[in-house]
Amino acid sequence: MNESQKATVEAAVWKASKIWKNAFNSGDGKGCAAQYEADAVMHARPLGTFTGTAEITAFWEKLIADGFAEVEYIEPQLEVVDEKSAILKSGWKMNNAGGVIHRELWVLQSDGRALLREDDFEAKG
Length: 125
Description:
The chain is α+β, with helices and mostly antiparallel strands. Helices cover 34% and strands 44% of the residues.
């Protein structure tokens, strides 16, 4: 993988991550779920595992309806795995919760966008 390919992956993932955060912070659960591949798997510790668009959409819509808002990532780190994927890890906080993102696996799609294939995060209060 050359530096140009690495830069392309990094830019796509940072952009997609920002789109996800903006959707969440504007109360758009469907917009959050739109940042996942159709058959993505999301591990939301300790709340459960959610697979596919319908389950992931329902999760984010309920979380937002329950009053969670204002997500912010704390010291995010991005590791490019190959010319099509990267792993993001970070701390996070919201208006009434916080925790750790253990692993967001973002994968470049044929249109150049990055989408989440795997999401593993934990709420710690």
